[in-house]
Design brief:
The chain is mainly alpha-helical. The protein is built from two helices and no strands.
Length: 66
């Protein structure tokens, strides 16, 4: 079942993951950290992988035009 709103929702989540990954890589986003310990590259990689997974899911979820 292919649905345009679901596909664009997945795309939006993927774009959000890209933004969060960039913020983690730059050291701006420090969730649940009591001290500033610099950039969290593992978190940035995780959100980057999640973004790629969302983009792949978007490709499968969007309706194809023939």
């Amino acid at each position: 079942m292919k649905s345009t709103p679901v596909a664009y929702g997945i795309l939006l989540v993927g774009l959000l993951c890209v933004v969060v990954a960039i913020l983690y890589a730059l050291g701006i986003l420090q969730l649940f950290a009591s001290t500033s310990s610099g950039p969290h590259y593992k978190h940035a990689i995780l959100f980057g992988v999640l973004a790629v997974a969302c983009f792949i899911a978007f490709n499968f979820a969007r309706p194809k035009t023939v």
